[in-house]
Structure formats: structure tokens, C-alpha cells
Amino acid sequence: MSGLQKWRARGHVAYLAFVVHRVSGVLLALFIPLHLWTLGKALNRPQALDSFLVWSDQPLVKFAETGLVLMLALHLGCGLRLLMLELLAWRQWQQTLAALAAAGGVAAALLFALRLA
Amino acid sequence: MSQTLQVDVWRGGADGHYQTFEVPHREHQTVLDVVTYIQRELDPSLSYRYACRVGMCGSCAMSVNGKARWTCRTHVKRVVEHGRLRLAPLDNLPRIKDLATDMAPFFDKIGQARGTFVPTRTRHDPFAAIAPDSPARASIDEAIECIGCGVCYASCDTVAWNPDYLGPAALNRAWTLMQDSRDAAHAERLLAVAGDAGCHACHTHMSCTERCPKQLSPTASIAGLKRLALGAALKGEL
Amino acid sequence: MTPRTAARLWALQRLSAAYLAIAVLVHLATIIYAIHGGLSSAEILGRTQGNLAWLLFYASFVVAVALHMPIGLRNVLSEHLGWRGRSLDLAMLAVALVVLGLGAQAVLGVFL
């Protein structure tokens, strides 16, 4: 099987939703311990927290943060979709759900990005 | 419509290569027609399987341009790309020779999922009365027409990633029996299909549902099993 | 792992997911509100210190993450890296405890 055909065989909406769900999940699993650790370190000492906040004000850091909010929102959207598919009797509306998941995720990230600006 | 098709066909077992044949392109030609032409006219040593040719027996499934399909009901003109077809044995199954896979793991797993009906009555008892419009009967109807072709199993990445996974067909079969009020093995079957190798391994890729030539949704059946397992686990019966 | 345990983990992950769905929305709304007009430590700590509702919300948030993440990670590691069996289950237990520990430190740090 050629590489292109292998990808195309996995191009349906539900599979793409799975990939987004999994990739965002792995990135969050890497980020969340770091997030908690930084908070635990910095929040106990206001000076450290303030210098951290100054550091996090850089454009590149803000860009990365927006990416993380996007991951969180996408993981949430795909997860809600999965909960509905698994727990409710369904037939035809799974594509609508996937679209809603994507739209909700992007909307949340945009909101975050615009507020940052 | 170009006059000839370039057809790449897998030759050999696990180790092998693609061999290219030129086959005349005809109107209303199926992929199985193409394979049969190669075997009869070009290379009689080509191995492949088929029986009914009309979409009932489930024996002719292969990978066609990267997607598992029933070849007897797949028209060439719907799948050909730039005059080319790429035919391979089904994924996720041991390759015996050319286009023939060893289907034993697939059928063994239907057995492991307790895919056999266990009667509660004997031939001396009266017929069981099942209302055709009852919810259980309706959900059986949605899943019962499986022909055991293995397309779902070959399309499922969870099978590829977790070789113990029972797979869509076996779980779909188990779901129909779990809905059958005449069956006596509900508890044992639920135990057989729950867990890391069973319904809980499914990630709802829906490749099975996407590819099933009978337009069944094993994903929906597996979701049903997850709900049954949840209910049983909450009641302490699992 | 027995089918019963697998079914329970599956249910636990869905249950924590349902809770996280709400908690994440609240968290995102809080972030978007909080970053409006810039962040400072005094502002953050002023909102959080001694705030019991805040403590309960974020403590439950951390517990839900500590349940949800290792179960998902277990699937990823077994499917993509082929890591299976007891060592994987113990490692995931360790991940849950690390998340709980780091989370407790962070949440208590801003509450006290």
C-alpha cells in the first residue's frame, strides 16, 4: 500500500476526530504536570510569580499558550463527541458532532488569542 | 475510459512484492472480474478467494487502492485511479499467498467473543415469541446482516495496535446475541467481550462503519456493549 | 487486568471526563476573565487566598485530571509503544500520584 493511500484510507471524519483527540491529549498530558509544577513553585513566592508572568508575556510564549488552550478546547470538544457517541444511542449525527467539536475548540482558542492581544 | 488497466497485485506471503499486469478495461467490470481475468488469462498461479460473486458469502474481500472492499460488488470505475489498481491481501491477517489471507484469527475471535447462540429451550418447547417491533429485535436487525468478510477487521487500526483485540465483527456478533432474549449465555459473553481486548479497546475510529459493505455499524454495537458492561459493573455483575 | 477493572476504569474515565468538561469551561472562562487587563501575582492571590469555593473547585479539578490522564495515557503507551502488563499499570498509578502531588502543591500554594 502506498503511503498516500494509507493516509487516505484514514481520512474520514471520525478518524480525524480521534487523531485530534489523541494528539491534544498527549500534549496536555505533557503540559499539565509542568503547569502544576510551575504554579506550585511560583505561586508561593509573589516575586517569582511576577517574574514568571513577565516571562510569559513574550509573544512566543503567548503563542504557545494559545496553542495549549486550543489543545484543551479541542480535547474537550472531541471528548464530548465521544461521550455522546458512546453513551447515547446514535446513528447519523456523528459528523455534525465532530464539526461542532472542531468549531467549539477553535472558537475558544480565538477568544483566548484575541483577549491576549 | 482508458483501454487497459495497470493492476499491481501482491505476490508472495508476508515477504513479497507487487507484480503489475495489464488488463483490458471493460464497462461494468468488477475488481473480482479483474483478478479472475489475471488468473485465467495471464498467470494461473495467482491465488485468491471467492465463491458467490454476488455479495453474500464474504470470501472475496481484499485491499483495493488501500481500502478493504468486497471485490465482487466493487466496480472498477468507482475505485480506479489514473488507470491503476493496487490489490493486496487484507491487512491485520497473516498472508498465505498472493491475495489469500489466513482468516483463522478473525473467526477464532468470533468464537472467543462467544459468538455462538446458546439456546434456553429445546426443540420440544414452543417457539419463542419475539415482537418484531421490540427495541431489542430492532437493534438486532441493525447489526445482524454480517457476512463475515473481514473488511472491518482489516480496516481497524485498534486491531493493528492491539493484536488481542477481538475486533469489530466479533463484537458486533456478540452484541446481537446480547440483545437476544432466547440466549442463555449473556453473563459469560459480557465477561468475554469486556476489557482491554474487548469493547473497551475501541476508540470509535469508525473505520469499520465506514467500510462495512453491508452498511452495518459495528461501532454502534460496540458502544452498546460498553453500556451493557457499565450497567453490569455498576450492579457488581461483571 | 480483569474485565471488571477495565470496565470500571473506562467508566471512571468517562465520569471524570464529564466533570472535566464542565470544569474546563469554568477554567477557560476564568482565564479569559483573569487575563483581561493583564496579570499580576497580587491580583491572582487576592482572588484565591482563603477562598473556599475556589479551593474546592480546583481540588476536584486536580483529582479529576489525576484520574482521567493516566487512563488515557495507558491506552496511548500500550497501543503506540507496545508497553503492556503490570509494569504499565504501576507506572500509570505513579503518574496519577505525581499529578495529585503537584496539583495539591499548586492549589494549596495559592489558597494558604
Would you kindly provide a written description of the structure presented here, covering whatever features stand out?
The complex is a heterotrimer of chains A (117), B (238) and C (112). Chain A has helices at residues 3-8, 13-43, 46-55, 59-87, 94-116. With 117 residues, chain A is an all-alpha fold. In chain A, helix 2 packs antiparallel against helix 3, helix 2 crosses helix 4 and helix 4 (59-87) runs antiparallel to helix 5 (94-116). The mean pLDDT of chain A is 79. Chain B has two domains: 4-101, Ubiquitin-like (UB roll) (Roll); 104-234, Orthogonal Bundle (Fumarate Reductase Iron-sulfur Protein, Chain B, domain 2). Chain B has 238 residues and is α+β, with helices and mostly antiparallel strands. The mean pLDDT of chain B is 96. Chain B contains ten helices and seven strands. In chain B, a hairpin with a 3-residue loop joins strand 1 (4-12) and strand 2. In chain B, helix 3 (104-112) runs parallel beside helix 7, helix 4 runs antiparallel to helix 7 and helix 7 (168-178) packs antiparallel against helix 8. In chain B, 36% of the residues lie in helices and 15% in strands. Chain B has helices at residues 31-42, 76-79, 104-112, 135-143, 151-155, 157-161, 168-178, 186-193, 207-211, 218-234, and strands at residues 4-12, 16-24, 61-64, 67-70, 84-88, 95-97, 100-101. By secondary structure, chain C is mostly helical. Chain C has one domain (3-111): Up-down Bundle (3 helical TM bundles of succinate and fumarate reductases), CATH 1.20.1300. Chain C is 86% helix and 0% strand. Chain C has four helices and no strands. Chain C has helices at 3-34, 41-48, 52-81, 86-111. The model of chain C has no long low-confidence stretch (mean pLDDT 89). Chain A binds chain C through residues 22, 25-26, 28-29, 32-33, 36-37, 39-40, 43-44, 46-47, 49-50, 53, 69, 72-73, 76, 79-80, 82-83, 86-87, 108, 111-112, 115-116, and chain C through 14, 17-18, 20-21, 24-25, 28, 31-32, 35-36, 39-42, 44-45, 62, 65, 69, 72-73, 76, 98-99, 102-103, 105-106, 109-110.
